[in-house]
Inverse folding.
């Protein structure tokens, strides 16, 4: 019975998401979330969202582009929240919970050429009877830079120092 309910919810969510994609001009604007520095080039942010019935929430993040691993954790805060899937920069993650599990966590590599965007799909209410209800969920995002980012930054600083040193030598050797 539980598998039939999950299948029905997934199909319903997919249909809702497809309809939402077709009517983009009627969609609410994405919800902005600021990622704050919490260490050396590590950023973190969190959000809370109130929902009712089927939901498809899109979040955009500042800084807008990022290279590295982004980890997302979604947790029901109130009511009955049933996560179905999430998209992080177009990469899909489905939620197939073990018995009693309600939190949804995943990680993905993202490239700097894309804006950081998260879409969360789910249902608030009783999934067995498909009765909509009010609820809320919280999310947290942690962005950790790719190790090669540090290497590129160090190489850039070395090049800047070498250029400054060469310019200083030219100025010192120039006739006064």
């Amino acid at each position: 019975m539980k598998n039939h309910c999950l299948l029905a919810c997934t199909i319903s969510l997919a249909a809702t998401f497809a309809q939402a994609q077709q009517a983009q001009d009627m969609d609410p604007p994405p919800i902005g979330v600021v990622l704050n520095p919490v260490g050396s080039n590590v950023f973190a942010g969190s959000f809370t969202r109130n929902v009712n019935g089927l939901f498809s929430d899109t979040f955009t993040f500042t800084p807008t582009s990022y290279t590295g691993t982004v980890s997302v954790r979604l947790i029901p805060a109130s009511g009955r929240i049933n996560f179905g899937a999430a998209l992080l920069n177009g990469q899909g993650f489905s939620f197939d919970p073990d018995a009693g599990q309600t939190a949804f966590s995943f990680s993905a590599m993202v490239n700097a050429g894309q804006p950081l965007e998260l879409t969360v799909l789910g249902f608030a209410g009783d999934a067995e009877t498909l009765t909509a209800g009010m609820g809320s969920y919280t999310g947290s995002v942690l962005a950790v830079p790719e190790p090669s980012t540090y290497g590129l930054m160090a190489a850039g600083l070395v090049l800047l120092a070498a250029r400054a040193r060469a310019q200083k030598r030219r100025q010192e050797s120039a006739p006064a």
The chain has a mean pLDDT of 77. Residues 2-145 form a domain with the Jelly Rolls fold (CATH 2.60.120.380). The longest strand covers residues 42-65. Strands lie at 31-34, 36-39, 42-65, 68-78, 81-88, 91-94, 104-110, 115-126, 131-132, 134-145.
